[in-house]
Amino acid sequence: MEVRGDLKYTEEHEWLQLEGDKVTLGITDFAQDKLGDVVFVELPEVGTILEAGEAIGNIESVKAVSEIFCPVAGEVIEVNKQLEEEPDLVNTSPYEDGWIVKIKVDRSDFADAELMNDEEYQNHCAAE
Amino acid sequence: MSVSKNGMVFNEPLLFELKSRGKAGMDLPETEIPLLDGTGLLAAQHLRGAVAIPSLSEPEVVRHFTRLSQWNYSVDGGFYPLGSCTMKYNPKLNEAAAAIEGFASAHPYAPYGCNQGLKRLLYELEQDLAEISGMDAVSLHPAAGSHGELLGMMLVVAYHKDRGDHKRTRVLIPDSAHGTNPSSASIVNLEAVTLPSGPNGLIDLATLDQMMDDTVAGIMITNPNTCGLFESQIKEVCDLVHARGGLVYFDGANMNALVGVARPGDMGADVLHFNTHKTFSTPHGGGGPGAGPIGVKSILAPYLPKPILVERRGQVQMDYNRPKSIGKVRSFYGNLGVLIRAWTYIKTLGASGLREMTQSAVTNANYLKARLKDHFDVPFVEQRSMHEVLLTDKKQQEAHVSTMDLAKGLIERGFHPPTVYFPLVVSGAMLIEPTETENKETLDQFADTLIELAGLDHETLAAYPKMTPVGRVDEVGAARKPILTYQG
Where do the Glycine dehydrogenase C-terminal domain residues begin and end (chain B) (predicted)? Predict the structure, then answer.
């Protein structure tokens, strides 16, 4: 299982990367492995205003449908349209090509959100 | 010995692929009505050219569908341990009863006072279901279990609305509940909130205590839950929900573990639905006619769909004078053919027979658990299973053998697989529900087969099934790139 040092993590197995006031969000390697082959990703509309902790879409695998949560409030500014054609990118490249949405956030909201660093996330996965 | 079908396995093309050009399947007489050319009658963009409808004879069509039907696996053909689905044998006596002329040709618009036999049967069925579940009133209107579930939640909403309590917009649903519960709640505009279960797989009272507030309309409980475990604190759970003004919806999916032994009404349920196709041996519809009666406590009875059946001066009549009723949810009085079968099953077994049915169902599941627990990971192994047993593929993972491999292997050996990857709270789940139908020989044969399969390597299993008309299909490919129309 790959965990990256430059990312923040949620208990529901999303990863977040902050650049300026822009957050990129995806699901972790651990999550994609648990889900199995992803067959469909339901993405939000660009422009959607999100509350912290709100579900932004669904990931459907051969085993289950899971919601994707965004732990920070903000506005959806970009979605990964490529996932509509190639949902398997979530499996093959969860931290790069398989990113899901980009969200414009308030940096102070991001700082206040309850997120884990790589080490904490690794412990979280080990406990599951 | 394998019970797998072999011998004449047909390779069946689609109807479109059967050679049909230039043939005529039917010889129709000349029509006396002159044929018109369509042009001019409709605008050009609404006219279509030749449509490639297969042109086949009657025996060709009959053979096509008969051959396809022979590919079906049914409980009349073999063991069908699909967990949470209660695939019990449907006695043929049910069919004989439903075919009785007076029932089969009864007309809903028959004159006032007619159909007394049928109405009496329905009235008795309502009373029997009320007695079995410990509820005060029963409605037979819903046309499926999901429909009953929806109706149940509509009554919960009607109850709070009638009391002027408008802030209750959420429903608590344990993560081990039946999968349809959140959608039923959503359709009546209630927000489904997941109640995480405790480490023992049961509802955690402390978590419930935190989440149960005055915005919660009620809780939807499946008991035994989808891990096959009995909610041992069910009374405390219901009392807590009631004390805070909520109602308890009880999912009847797993009634096969309770009938004749314990009653949801006594545990604190305010409303529940029955799956007659699970508990009372009516056919599993596959989209065909079904029945999902609901039972309610007296506080919800005023809101039941109308009409209701009442007995007056020795006659069973329909009472439409129900001012608080939510209205109608189904034409006439539900799917009678299904309800007649359920009545027949209940009357055939009687009170002691129904109790024995439940005891046998639970015994069979626990027998399988005892046979399999040394070979498979059994979550919550220390708790007694109810009518189904939950295994996982944890012990097989080192050899890269998954639940899916085992399921395909079971098909190869002639068994319907159990429910796989459900409940979602358990990774690699196999939910096995033998029902009371099966004898020890069948259970042993199944257990031996599953143990044998678990000892095979991944490569062998990955090639299964081989003896079926269609081998291992590419499920991922089918889900990622579905082809939904015939491509020529």
Answer: 358-453
- Note whether B378 and B368 are within 8 A (CB): no
Do A34 and B475 lie within an 8 Å CB cutoff? no
Three-class secondary structure of residue B103 per DSSP: helix
Q: State pLDDT tens for residues A32-60.
A: 998 889 999 999 999 999 999 989 999 99
| Nearest CA among B150, B147, B226, B160 for reference residue B186 | B150
Whether residue B122 is contained in a domain is answered as yes
Query: Which chain B residue has the Cα nearest residue A40?
Result: B480
Distance from C-alpha of B246 to C-alpha of B213, rounded to nearest angstrom? 9
CA distance B158 to chain A (A): 29
Measured distance CA(A91)–CA(B70) in Å, rounded: 38
Rounded distance between C-alpha atoms, residue B183 and residue B302, angstroms? 25
pTM of the model: 0.86
Chain A residues near residue B421 by CB distance under 8 angstroms: 63-64
The two three-digit tokens of residue B308, written as one number: 């209701």
Contact between B476 and A39 using a beta-carbon 8 Å cutoff? yes
Distance from CA of B481 to the nearest CA of A (A): 8
Q: What is the pLDDT of residues B196-255, one digit of tens each?
A: 999 888 999 999 999 999 999 999 999 999 898 999 999 999 999 999 999 999 999 999
- ipTM higher than the 0.90 cut: no
The CATH number given to whatever domain includes residue A13 is 2.40.50.100
| Strand positions, DSSP E, B30-94 | none
What domain count does chain A have? 1
Same domain? B235 vs B284: yes
Tokens of B443: 């259970």
The range of the structural domain enclosing residue B366 comes to 357-480
Q: What is the span of the domain harbouring residue A73?
A: 8-127
Last residue of a domain, one of B320, B348, B376: B348
Q: With an 8 Å Cβ cutoff, is A62 touching chain B?
A: yes
